[in-house]
């Protein structure tokens, strides 16, 4: 099953009250010990601890600092699971904290809510406990903490706190907690400690860079006697950030990402502090391709000449959290593709092999095998499809816009669809029951026939359609019972993709995804969703949405080939989705949703690179639907990112309707419209958070809609949840949707009376 899935099931069992806290802790301890042992056996010298999380590492730091928002009723002491998971997921009486993407990855974190009145205290001893746990097993680890400055820069002002409040002003309040943790780790025998300060790769202002210097100067005396590693990742360091990094007080070592930050090498070569360690991230921690060992060794040898033989440490570019666990678990990948890959376990071996080679102990057979695999991948006919490459190249020269403006299209669509004001819909998926999962699993294992599978899925679709009609939802979905994952489902039916059996990656908490592997040129051999969408439409007279995943999201939620620019792969996917959109329209589907949940996620970390990314990402979306009639309504959906800074690009996508996460992020999306941005297309800011089991009342939802009506015209506003419902139970979904529809009807009545 793998450690990520094992944790998922342990968490869900605990949340469902089927197992105890002790049971969950026992599973977690077993997983940690297994990982530590595996790394020790592979010869890794610097083994991290405190990297295991029940939800996410930033929430762990919030717990460590005792920064619990007052609404959770925490009264001090060691933070337990009840408070911890209430912050992450909400509970029956209060909503969860905001969740957003971790930099430009598909990992999520719970955003700290801070203000001048927060009373910080040392409230979670997890970092020290896990260090001691590893030590008792005979493994001396490097405890890892989110650095104090990055923690504050990743936070937000709590509700009621002025937006202009300086979060960095809280540094003097959190540094004493860090000192307590460091002192306990020293007393427990730690010789190294790692602070993750990934915000150093962002575009920072001078006062933000100065905060790093102030923080580590304050920590210097407490850190005395420890080797201190500051780890950065996901991008290059600017020259100012690099200067800040190497001048930090009390710091022994610097970690840099040399996969996504190759330009940092020039900074290192021009000025590296004598006697300091460099943790060189030459093995990609975010993708699954085997390392080009010869190329990496060449890079390392050049760096060795600068920093010194004894001070160069071979490392991954970032945490291996973002990749699958072990290639050994993959029994269905063919040998050729498998030879091109390296999952976390294999990356650990690559790190050790490079370290040995650097020390003059090259494993010639391992390096030769790696070189052969690299050559095989470059020359394989499976990778290149000339027809696809020509079609993608032909896209240049057009921006692929629909001929009619959105206002005229919406008028044409309304005449055809005849929807009420404030139309209601959901985002796509409905709860994935155990029975439904069993049916899909047995069909994949050839334990039931295709006829039996189709019958079971049709019955599930009918149940979902009937429920929506009973609730009086206006635009329906079929619930996606045939799909385990929105990206995996499409990738399985597109050429150029490969799939794993156990390649799970944690997205947050118990949510694991199994990203497809894009190894070659992409095309669509046959229709992918037309049968199910047509089947669902035949069950109702109401509009039924065709449900597709957009090209940018498929790209960003896959392990992408690294032998050509990402935009070229994205254009290929866009053409495949375009074929599907046009087939859905021909089949009589009048509303088609093309989800781009991950468009914002892929935004580069550097502002100088934003325009180019947004140009090709938005263009890719427009390619998918440029050929449809004015009467075909194109929806898109986005969730759990900060969209305010790309709102003009979202408008440029030229979708007819966008549904977008709003409620969990304290409705900050609405601030864009308060500031004067005009949005003429249909828009459905989410009215309730689906990642929490909490059921919102009709009054609460009506209040949210009223806030939207204050900044958006009623004729463009849609009413919908934040995201899909697959992670929820029907006992939560039915009353929540019932209240949502009731709120929409209540507001329709009020709007009608006001005329």
UniProtKB/TrEMBL annotation:
Cofactor(s) needed: Zn(2+)
Keywords: Amino-acid biosynthesis, Metal-binding, Methionine biosynthesis, Methyltransferase, Transferase, Zinc
Enzyme Commission number(s): 2.1.1.14
Span of domain Cobalamin-independent methionine synthase MetE N-terminal: 1-306
Gene3D superfamilies linked to this entry: 3.20.20.210
Reactions catalysed: 5-methyltetrahydropteroyltri-L-glutamate + L-homocysteine = tetrahydropteroyltri-L-glutamate + L-methionine
Pathway the protein takes part in: Amino-acid biosynthesis; L-methionine biosynthesis via de novo pathway; L-methionine from L-homocysteine (MetE route): step 1/1
Source organism, top-level taxon: Eukaryota
Cobalamin-independent methionine synthase MetE C-terminal/archaeal domain sequence ranges: 422-745
NCBIfam families from the UniProt entry: met_syn_B12ind (TIGR01371), PRK05222.1 (NF003556)
Record's function text: Catalyzes the transfer of a methyl group from 5-methyltetrahydrofolate to homocysteine resulting in methionine formation.
Family to which this protein belongs: Belongs to the vitamin-B12 independent methionine synthase family.
Protein name: 5-methyltetrahydropteroyltriglutamate--homocysteine S-methyltransferase
Record organism: Hibiscus sabdariffa (roselle)
Lineage: Eukaryota, Viridiplantae, Streptophyta, Embryophyta, Tracheophyta
